[in-house]
Amino acid sequence: MSEEHYLELCGNPVQFENASSVNNVFFDEANKQVFAVRSGGATGVVVKGPDDKSTVAFRMDDKGEVKCIKFSFGNKILAVQRTSKSVEFINFIPDLLHLEYSQECKTKNASILGFCWTNWNEIVFITDQGIEFYQVLPDKRSLKLQKSQSINVNWYMYCPVTSVILLSTTVLGNVLQPFFFRSGTMSKISKFEIELPGVSKPAKLSLSERDIAMATIYGQLYVMYLKHHSRTVNNPGAEVVLYHLPREGTCKKMHVLKLNTTGKFALNVVDNLVVVHHQSSQTSMIFDIKLRDTDSTLSVHQPVVPARSIHPYKIPLTGPAAVTTATPVPCELYSSTWSVFQPDIIISASEGYLWYLQVKLQPVVNLMKDKGKLMDFLLQRRDCKMVIVSVCFQMLNGPDKSNLSVIATVFDKLNQVYKEYLEAEQSYTMAVETGQSRGNPAQKRPVRTQAVIDQSDMYTHVLSVFTEKKDVSHKFITAVLMEYIRSLNQFQITVQHYLYELVLKTLVHHNLFYMLHQFLQYHVLSDSKPLACLLLSLESTYPPAHQLSLDMLKRLSTANDEIVEVLLSKQQVLGARRFIRGVGGHDNISARKFLDAAKQTREEMLFYTIFRFFEQRNQRLRGSPHFTPGEHCEEHVAYFKQVFGEQALMKPTAS
Amino acid sequence: MATGAQEKQYPPSLLNFFVYNPKFGPKEGEEEKKILFYHPNEVEKNEKIRNVGLCEAIIQFTRTFCPTKPAKSLHTQKNRQFFCEPEENFWMVMVVRNPMIEKNNKDGKPVVEYQEEEILDSVYSSVLQQCYNMYKLFNGTFARTMEAGGVDLLKQRLEKFFYRYLQTLHLQSCDLLDIFSGISFFPLDKMTYLKIQSFVNRMEESLNLVKYTAFLYNDQLIWSGLEQDDMRILYKYLTTSLFPRHSEPELAGRDSPMRLEMAGNLLHYGRFLTGPSNLKDPEAKFRFPKIFVNTENTDEELHLIVYKAMSAAVCFMINTSVELTREFCEQLDSLVGPQLTLLASDICEQYSINRRISGPEKEPQFKFIYFNHMNLAEKSTIHMRKTASVSLTSIHPELMKILGDINSDFSRVDDDEEIIVKAMTDYWIVGKKSDQRELYVILNQKNANLIEVNEEVKKLCATQFNNIFFLD
């Protein structure tokens, strides 16, 4: 069976001391740091960040059980919450006093639910009665209230990437009030209501923070709501409802992800895919909100591929030798001790591991039969290039070969993305050019994502290899190449000559000259000097190639010298002379070349005519019929004298 | 003169047409066995033998002068005979009566005057060669028939084919174009052409029996999967015989257009030009004409399916070892019909856009014939639409003959050439040959001189042929 586990835990997890009666573990989503606090900090606090270098260890006085502990950005200031009334601060800035200082919440009788750093020196307290936005003044070891807002809060949620805090308000808890923070300002975003599956009576808190998550998907902030349905016959199961939360405007319900089952779920977002873990079946499913089935404003999505469990994981041998055991231990997946954090973090506090969840594309390829949909999916992924290329290659080869209309669809999808990139690049270049002259600030250069599969990628990884295959019919090869060229043309992308050469070589290899001839006749293979030269070389096997090549050189209009060369090589000396005179280039041509060719024909009168022509040219240009030494025509002058006599040479006309 | 009005003109006409093989009756008294086909059949046996014997003798005699190139034609006052040996020892002979003018002499009695010089060898030799090619397209080579069923089968096939075919020979309207026997290509932009390519490839893949495909629009070729020589004769058949036969109902208003396919399939205009005329007919026969291609080497026998939607026609050629069934035809109809309909309207649209862009001023003011030996492309602004019966020209036959003469001159040498002829009244005729291309232009300008004519032709080349290498 081919590999089907499309999710995996990263191979290099962050390891920390597992949670126990003496060791409390905290996770800060903003800095992605794990805090292991031993005995309230008295015997040490170890902070592990996403990479090994960012480990911080220190001690602090045990002043009671720690409820929450977080560094500000850059590990400048540490905030510790031990009571529901206040938060203590410790400076971690060199040269500043290391002593704790404290801040009580301003609202009387309020209890602090938690706090979030929104900057290296800005912090927000969330209390049950509102939020308070402070600036920390580490040198003065005090805080200054910037702004506050009274509102009844059930619970809160923070999205550090977008600096948005979401407050659950009202009795039911389903009215969510977002706030947005940016360098010293706090702004309110219009509140919105989550539609609950059913209203309970009497009214009580019905929306739990466990069922809400915030994450950015395709650059947009979404509030994800896990909607549990009461089990009924006609109810297929739970769903995830995605509310789009724009910075301005109102929050709108945009997507519904159908889970088709019930039970306990957890959400992650990996590579813009929503991952839903289902504990009881020990499987996860992935959703891509860009894969649309319908075109309505609210799109309903089914899982991209059938649910599968995360790839079996063994606790690695490498890492700090003290912690690892001798043999790798299989890790229990979907454990009840797992905590899931946004966007892609899974923590097992009991085992002391923090993993990043990853999506593997190859297993998705194995599970998705519809190649068009698969391409839509792959093109949105981060590390998609080699997978796309291999899908393209498989599509053209072997037993799972796709039919031409599928191939055409895939090419069109690839070229759509390719074209969009080319256009962005072009408009950037134009903006830079015009911007420089006007002194406008430079526009951002478009990022070339892995999804941009250009002609050279296709040529190198797919087409050139595929055309070499012995077991593929030439008919299919040509059809595929033409389909790719058609697709490029459809998106008005200039086709590179090496693709044409590939077509040409394939046709020539199979003696399909008439086919080639027809393609050239309709200018399917665009004109270029390399192609014209390639055609010239075919003349011995396919005589009409000579005409095709000359036509092409003529159309290029920059290849007059080549045309003369071709005609002279065919000993069409007069033809060459007529041509060059027709295009007005006869004053610059090499007399020697023409005389050489004329001599080779062994036609004396032809030689005479050509010789005379150049004598006249010399006369016209320089006032004398003689050749200059630079023209290297001495041999021909001698030959002329020998055949026609010295007196036949043109006399300089006195002017 | 008053007598002029009473002149009666007779165009050239077919007198005899026969096929023989001298090896089949070498002994005296067995001469009749040599004759494989003779038209008209009513001719008395001895006369047939005499005529065949005469031809044999002439060919034998002329061989003594040039063993590789025996006589091609024999000129006499009343008629002209054309000889052709398409396969070893198989001879085809066509006897054409010279055109004549019937005048009344002084006494008022009709006198016939033969115009021996009015017809061209090159034209009618080509016509004879075409007769063979057309026969071969539908029957294969003589040799192959001999292998399959001996002389009797060959005689039978010749009789069956030529009985009908000879009636369609319109010798009076044969001209330069018969020498070229070219193919008119449909002008098309690259993108639409690629779409057609894509269509052809997909159809060949879906109907995986198809060996070759050809695509035509407006009776002009766009794509041929067949080799050039086979396409040349197939094209001739399609455009002079099959399409004209089917154009009548089309012109009269399409027969039941937009027919609703069962099971809610797409609406389309597609229909079979060969094979079943109505798929719904329970009695419908699924027999298609057979054609023979690549006779030089692989010698393939194929079913010829011609399917048309609006002005687009596709020929699918399938090996005859495959039996074509109702199911196959229905599959083809439902697959090709809708797509071809769509493609046809695409081509039509694109074509009219291109015409609008190029504008009416690009429409040729000149009367010309162009031919390229390399791809057999021909273009004529002299000939009207070809019909089943005659090819109409817009110029005087006298001028057509001059074109033929120039062509004969060209064919004698390999070099590039240019010939300018001042014809009667104000006509100038210019023939140009550059590499493998030939161009004939007819100009009618009052009091034009040689230089002006030359300038005009240059202008024509610059507008019509600017994208090819054509030496001025």
Number of helices of chain B: 9
**What about the largest sheet of chain B?**
6 strands, antiparallel
Could you state the order of secondary-structure elements of chain B as H and E?
A: EEEHEEEEEHHHHEEHEEEEHEEEEHEEEH
Calculate Rg of chain B over CA atoms: 25 Å
How much beta of chain A, percentage-wise?
25-35%
Largest interface: A-B, 37 and 32 residues
Shape of chain B: globular
Look at the helices and sheets of chain A and give the structural class: alpha+beta
Low-confidence stretches of chain A: none
Average pLDDT across residues of chain A?
85
How much helical structure, as a percent, in the residues of chain A?
25-40%
Number of helices of chain A: 15
Largest sheet of chain A: 5 strands, antiparallel
- Overall pLDDT metric of chain B: 85
Number of extended strands of chain B: 21
Category by helix and strand content of chain B:
alpha+beta
State the share of residues found in helices of chain B, binned by percent: 25-40%
Specify the oligomeric state. Answer: heterodimer
Itemize the secondary structure elements and their pairings:
The complex is a heterodimer of chains A (655) and B (472).
Chain A: E1 7-9, E2 14-15, E3 23-28, E4 33-38, E5 45-48, E6 56-58, E7 68-71, E8 77-81, E9 86-91, E10 101-104, E11 112-119, E12 122-127, E13 130-137, E14 142-150, E15 155-159, E16 164-169, E17 175-182, E18 185-188, E19 192-193, E20 212-217, E21 220-227, E22 239-244, E23 252-258, E24 265-270, E25 273-278, E26 283-287, E27 299-301, E28 314-315, E29 329-330, E30 338-341, E31 345-348, E32 353-359, H1 361-367, H2 371-379, H3 385-396, H4 404-438, H5 455-468, H6 474-490, H7 497-509, H8 513-521, H9 529-537, H10 544-556, H11 560-569, H12 573-582, H13 591-600, H14 604-622, H15 634-644
Parallel strand pairs in A: 23-27
Antiparallel strand pairs in A: 1-32, 2-32, 3-4, 4-5, 5-6, 7-8, 8-9, 9-10, 11-12, 12-13, 13-14, 15-16, 16-17, 17-18, 17-19, 20-21, 21-22, 22-23, 24-25, 25-26, 28-29, 30-31, 31-32
Helix pairs in contact in A: 2-4, 3-5, 4-6, 5-7, 6-7, 9-10, 11-12, 13-14, 14-15
Chain B: E1 8-10, E2 13-20, E3 35-39, H1 45-63, E4 73-75, E5 79-87, E6 90-97, E7 100-104, E8 110-114, H2 121-139, H3 142-165, H4 176-180, H5 190-206, E9 210-217, E10 220-224, H6 228-251, E11 271-272, E12 290-293, E13 300-309, E14 312-319, H7 326-358, E15 367-372, E16 378-380, E17 383-386, E18 391-393, H8 397-412, E19 417-422, E20 427-434, E21 437-444, H9 450-464
Antiparallel strand pairs in B: 1-7, 2-3, 2-6, 4-5, 5-6, 7-8, 9-10, 9-14, 11-13, 12-13, 13-14, 15-16, 15-21, 17-18, 19-20, 20-21
